[in-house]
Design brief:
mainly alpha; 16 helices
Length: about 375
């Protein structure tokens, strides 16, 4: 039961930002896949490159929000750590296991994907075959990578939280900037070098896998925001900074679509999460959103509901998309029209399905991680 008192205790701006994040993430998936960018009309090239860029801002927002809400806790004793794993990590592991099995059954029925015992075990352990095996789960469910990424970060939360609370602030910033240089700065430099037809640099000087690499880079940004980063920035300056960085990200995506990346990654550029501007842009959105004042209780309730359903929408929307594509909806439309029509259907149908499923208490608790 969603009570008014419960809603009033929450930060409505963060609920609004989480809703924005899922809208953006689904947008990038709605752009027609496996279609050369040059097949769009000139206007369509601009619009769809902007949507791909905006879509790639959505997922970093999710990671930053998780860090914002979870890393500031102390986990100071054995009971607190056990409670966190029991209440957060275990349900998440069960939910993701169930979703992988649902994916396997769904893909078997809809697309006749070969699904033997070995394939199921690979999917459950998030293992993929090398050399682009066509049966890899990620080839069908693009959103599946999010599961091990967020689950791995949750496993490390008590360790990281206890460490950072006892670490000097300047030392944290020094390590964080070093991590950014390896996980984001070098890959970004490589993007521009590759665009010029030149070979980039290797980023393997430091093994940062324990820190979660790019996902943890976003995750830790949430903690920095919660503990003072952007605190001295005026709200208007945060908004302006968000607009400028978003514009630069969209322009980069558009400009790089005309570059042949076949030599480096097998095709055209799809904005990578390592692109360094995504970090300050998503961080500024979260910091900006945390200050939003949303007064009407009905609007706060609306954002609360859409935010609570966002994980379910993220997990289920790709299934909806595959069904729509199988049925051939929107086949007579232009590519850009297909993007917007598909996005609208994905949002409406996915939210409706997730809302109906959330009414089943067992499903809401163990599949949608409702609270």
């Amino acid at each position: 039961m969603i009570t008014e008192a419960k809603i009033l205790k929450r930060n409505p701006g963060l609920d609004a930002v989480r809703t924005l994040a899922i809208l953006l993430a689904v947008f990038s998936h709605a752009v027609p896949a496996h279609i050369s960018f040059q097949r769009f009309s000139p206007t369509g090239q601009i619009i769809n490159s902007m949507l791909v860029a905006l879509g790639h801002i959505g997922v970093p927002i999710f990671f930053i929000l998780s860090g914002y809400l979870l890393l500031d806790r102390t986990y100071s004793d054995k009971q607190a750590i056990q409670r966190f794993y029991r209440q957060k990590v275990l349900p998440m592991a069960i939910a993701f296991t169930a979703w992988v099995l649902i994916y396997d059954v769904f893909l078997k029925l809809l697309l006749k994907r070969p699904t033997g015992i070995l394939q199921v075990l690979e999917d459950l352990t998030f293992i993929s075959r090398q050399n682009g095996n066509p049966n890899n789960l990620g080839n069908f469910m693009w959103n599946a990578w999010f599961m091990p990424a967020i689950l791995g970060l949750y496993l490390a939360i008590p360790f990281i939280s206890r460490a950072i609370h006892q670490f000097p602030r300047r030392g944290l910033w020094a390590i964080y900037l070093l991590v950014i240089s390896q996980t984001m700065l070098i890959p970004t430099i490589n993007l521009f070098l590759n665009a010029a037809g030149k070979v980039g640099f290797s980023a393997s000087q430091l093994d940062l896998s324990y820190f979660g690499a790019r996902s943890a880079t976003y995750f830790f940004a949430g903690y920095l925001i919660r503990t003072g980063a952007f605190q001295k920035w005026r709200t208007s300056l945060l908004g302006l900074f968000t607009v400028i960085t978003t514009g630069l990200i969209m322009y980069t995506q558009y400009a790089f679509q005309f570059t042949d990346y076949t030599r480096f990654n097998g095709g055209q550029l799809n904005m990578p999460y390592e692109y360094i501007l995504l970090l300050p842009c998503a961080a500024a959105i979260v910091a900006w959103g945390s200050r939003w004042k949303i007064a009407p209780i009905w609007l706060r309730r609306c954002f609360y509901t859409t935010a609570q359903l966002s994980l379910g929408v993220f997990l289920i929307h790709r299934m909806v998309q595959l069904v729509i594509e199988k049925l051939g909806w929107f086949a007579g439309m232009t590519l850009t029209q297909q993007t917007f029509a598909l996005w609208g259907c994905l949002i409406v149908i996915s939210y409706l399905l997730t809302y109906l499923l959330s009414k089943l208490s067992f499903v809401d608790r163990w599949l949608l991680l409702g609270r």
